[in-house]
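By way of example, we now present a protein record of this kind:
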Amino acid sequence: MATLVENVSVWRNARAKLAAKLAPYAAVPLRLIVGGGFLAHGLAKWHRGPEAFSAILHTLGVPSPLLMAWLTIATELLSGIAILIGAFVSLISIPSIILLTVAVFTVHLPYGFSSIKLLGVSNGMAQLGPPDTNAISSTLHPSWRLP
């Protein structure tokens, strides 16, 4: 009959083997969340059109709004794909960090982090609406769309 100490030792060894076996997959949930987030935001901006996003950037006072709209969309799409597949993550993280830092300080800190619909910006104030589930759902596969 095994003692408690021997049973604990066997359990720890089995746990260590399992952890070593699963270690290569530890980043998968994080890649799905971060890569999926970048991809979803890029697709939503692409779906509405770069010109619509450019108008919002112009109202926020961003220089060269159309160029910045295209750069933002391209960065979000490429970052999302790269992070999802795990390719060039350290390289793509630099423009991603810059993009997120600008978004936090120009939009999210002044207006919040909730999933509301940004209708536009006028007189330095955001014009907000209800969540746009149709825009989100239109970027998804038909079988995943919201009702």
User: Anything to note?
Assistant: The chain has six helices and two strands. The chain has a mean pLDDT of 82.
